[in-house]
Amino acid sequence: MSQTITLYVDGACRGNPGLGGWGAYILIDDIQHELCGGEAETTNNRMELTAAIEGIKFCAADAKLIIWTDSKYVKQGITEWIHGWKKKNWKDVKNPDLWQQLDAVCQGRDIEWNWIKGHAGHAGNEKADQLANLGADQTLALLKQPAQDKKKSETDWLLSDPFGLDFIEDELAEEDEILSEQLQASSVELQIDTADTADTADTAKDTNLHPHIHITTATLEQHGPRQLILDTETTGFYYQDGDRIIEVGAIEMINRKLTGSSIHIYINPEKPVGDSVQVHGITDEFLVDKPKYAEIAHTLFEYLQGAEIIAHNANFDMNFLNMEFQRVGLPALSEVCGVVDTLALAKSKHPGQKNSLDALVRRYEIPARDRTFHGALLDAEILSDVYLAMTGGQVSFDMDALSHSDQQTDTSIRRVQLNVTLPVISPSEEENQAHENWVQQYQEKHGEPCLFAK
Q1: Distance (Å, whole) CA 378 – CA 42
Q2: How many CA atoms lie within 13 A of 400 on its CB side?
Q3: What's 292's DSSP letter?
Q4: I need a surface site. Which of 73, 111, 157, 161 has the fewest CB within 10 A?
């Protein structure tokens, strides 16, 4: 039986085009592999593609690969668009050299492609992002070396830096590329997810925030009591014995609708994470430059206070949060927030059954997400789906029975039949020809006839 390998791949670019890096975080059994590299003049999408190519090349040809990328451009390209591109012999395709390389390394392999939301606190994705930025940093360091110290194999264009490499990261690059490729691939409705870009912009606006505090503003305006679906990751199970919080994630819900507002923070616990790394995947090395709780406590408290906290096994999270806030001289969170424990709720609804978050995800058929490692924001997002499923549900309507009931209960209603002749507007010859051209173009791009074909 072949082994299963999990890969997290990511790209980064400081300017578009500009200095870029790629990273691949690979989990083979219990061994972790870290790959990275970069280029002085590239684009974000080229780095995303390179990360996938290099990650796959590293793995055994007979292994099953489970690949996670936060690039819809890569995921949709390799699973959907590429078939049409090959039929057109790669005409009008951006980055054809890398797409052909990716297609080649995928041939004959068992690969499962998955998309994951970037910068959402998932440990594997965060690690790949770190590696991508490390690749960019290493490339920049090489560029800054004196010319006589550079390797002879480097080409002349690497020795000059006409742009100065003074850029900020431009997360709109991938969205532009997705739009361009989707316009080529299909004439159906386009859906571009700009949430990550909006999140980054909103966070950057508040210059008073610690750089490691990520707060997104609401994109859906709602009025009513705030509920915060919350999760924490810690160094252990016992706050009484000195275990500390290392990650907090919470998403806002009002009137049973997620507003888009959230908070996410990694925290330096000032002690080793120990064996808990096997649960959340967050290492001491990753946390070394993160803020201590005292540095983020007031911002976090201000965001949480007054809301109703929804958490799974809420006593665990609330005990740790109460301890951490009181440690810095703030009130216990339980004094300023209501609490809903979804574990207690699940036990009352499903007595005698497993009621872990994973069990509830299966029971309520929540869309699967990768949980190789637990992450606070990821678990909060999953819990929001579980909570809505547990406390809501769909109502099935029998329209015939409802109509029959209406007739019985209100005999004053009369049904009047109206005979209306609707005009028939036939298309012109020019419109018919335009339609036929569109149908033909669709078939050429997708390799199959359109539903609207005659």
Answers
A1: 31
A2: 0
A3: B
A4: 157
Using DSSP's 3-state secondary structure scheme, residue 12 falls into: strand
Q: What fold, for 196-391?
A: Nucleotidyltransferase; domain 5 (3.30.420)
CATH superfamily for domain 4-185 = Ribonuclease H-like superfamily/Ribonuclease H (3.30.420.10)
H helix or E strand, kind and range, residue 308: strand 308-311
Max CA separation in the chain (angstroms): 97
| Residue in the block written with tokens 């003049």 | 41
* Residues 225-283 pLDDT 10s: 999 999 999 999 999 999 999 999 999 999 999 999 999 999 999 999 999 888 888 89
Q: What residues are annotated to the active site? A: 374
pLDDT tens digit string along 141-196? 888 876 545 444 444 433 333 333 333 344 455 555 565 555 555 433 333 344 44
- 30 annotated as ligand-binding: no
Flag whether 48 is marked binding: yes
What per-residue confidence (pLDDT) applies to 390?
A: 92
Element (H, E) at 436: helix 429-446
Exposure string for 347-383, b = 16+ CB within 10 A, e = fewer: eeeeeeeebebeebbebeebeebbeebbbbbbbbbbb
1 and 158 in contact (C-beta within 8 Å)? no
